[in-house]
Amino acid sequence: MAILPNKLGITSQTELNRIEEKVSKQKAKHLFDSGDMNFIEIGTFKGLSEVHRYLFEDIYELAGMMRDVNIAKKDFLFAPIMYLKDSLDYIDKMPQHSFDEIIEKYVEMNVAHPFRDGNGRSARIWLDFMLKSEIRSVIDWNVVDKKDYLPAMERSPVQDIEIKQILKTALTPKTNDRDRFMNGIDASFYYEGYFAYKIKEL
Ligand SMILES: Nc1ncnc2c1ncn2[C@@H]1O[C@H](COP(=O)(O)OP(=O)(O)O)[C@@H](O)[C@H]1O
Ligand SMILES: [Mg+2]
């Protein structure tokens, strides 16, 4: 895969991965510490794109913007761009009152995969904001094992029972706990192969 065009003029994928991790983790930390997270719209594509832009705007021109290419992972084709806008409008209207409804919405957003990259990391933050606001709980991502999480997400478009179970077990009422948030960001980035920096040391 070709390296994504970036604002920093970086042409080495290894270097880009490191800088992206460093900068976006610093931004994630600031999202919490500044209180900016309280202004993110809950449960909509607009809110998700606010999170995505917040994390990645210093690196990618396309931060927060809907992709204009089709993408697949393993054998799974995410929403074809032809249907992406309709799919996002539909997801905006999905209910988000219970844990099950919220996870179903999260699974649909993963199927939509609105951005060229950074969907996983931004959607997990978006998911936590929904859970916090609607059911006064969040996921403790530190207790969610990558080996369980990723296969469950891969199967989720067909069968969401597994991901619901994994995430339900990891629910915590510590919605405003800074350690939980920061360690959760490190875990979330680890799922996607980014583990060169610890957020608290940035
Ligand atoms: N084969 C698959 N089928 C469905 N979802 C997948 C598949 N592979 C990965 N995912 C989901 O996509 C996310 C990664 O998307 P990506 O845009 O690369 O995010 P990031 O850049 O934050 O890693 C994973 O966290 C997982 O939720
Ligand atoms: Mg990725």
UniProtKB/TrEMBL annotation:
Enzyme Commission (EC) number: 2.7.7.108
Catalytic reactions of this protein: L-tyrosyl-[protein] + ATP = O-(5'-adenylyl)-L-tyrosyl-[protein] + diphosphate; L-threonyl-[protein] + ATP = 3-O-(5'-adenylyl)-L-threonyl-[protein] + diphosphate
ATP-binding keyword on record: yes
Keywords: ATP-binding, Nucleotide-binding, Nucleotidyltransferase, Transferase
Gene3D superfamilies according to UniProt: Fido-like domain
Segments forming domain Fido: 43-172
Keyword Transport in annotation: no
InterPro entries cross-referenced by the UniProt entry: Fido (IPR003812), Fido-like_dom_sf (IPR036597)
Pfam families given in the database record: Fic (PF02661)
A GO term for molecular function: nucleotidyltransferase activity
Protein name: protein adenylyltransferase
